[in-house]
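#lab-general

N.A. 3:47 PM
ok so I finally got the sequence cleaned up, no stray characters, all 129 residues accounted for. can someone with queue access submit it? mine expired

B.Y. 3:52 PM
send it over

N.A. 3:53 PM
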Amino acid sequence: MKKIAVVEDNPDNRLLVQVILESRYRIDEYADGFSALEGLRRKRPDLVLLDVSLPEMDGTQVLRRIRAEDGLRDLPVIALTAHAMAGDREKFIAAGFDDYVTKPIVDETLLLAAIEKLINGRPAAREAT
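B.Y. 4:20 PM
back already:
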C-alpha cells in the first residue's frame, strides 16, 4: 500500500484527509514543517500533501527544503491550501509544488485524482506548464 504524508496544522483537516484516504493509502501525519521534514527523512512517503499556511515554517519553506535534499527532492508534493484566488494555483505550481488542491475539501474526487495522477507517475502540473 502506498504511503502519503499529510502536513497540516489543523487537526480537523487532518482527520478529514485521513477519512478520505485511509482505505486507499497508509497515512503519516505531521502538524508542522519541522516534524514533517524529520519524518519524511525517516519514513519517506510516496507523496506529500502539504498545507501552505503552517506555523513557524510555512508550506513553501518546507517545500524548498524538500527540493534541496537529495533523498527527498523528487517527492511529489501537492499544495493543500485555502488560498483559492485567481492566480494562486499558478503561483504555487511555479514555486515547485506538483499540484494544487483547495480547502475546504468539498469534492474528494479532486483530491483523489491529483494524488492518483502523481502516484501513478503521470506528469506533474509543474512539468506540464
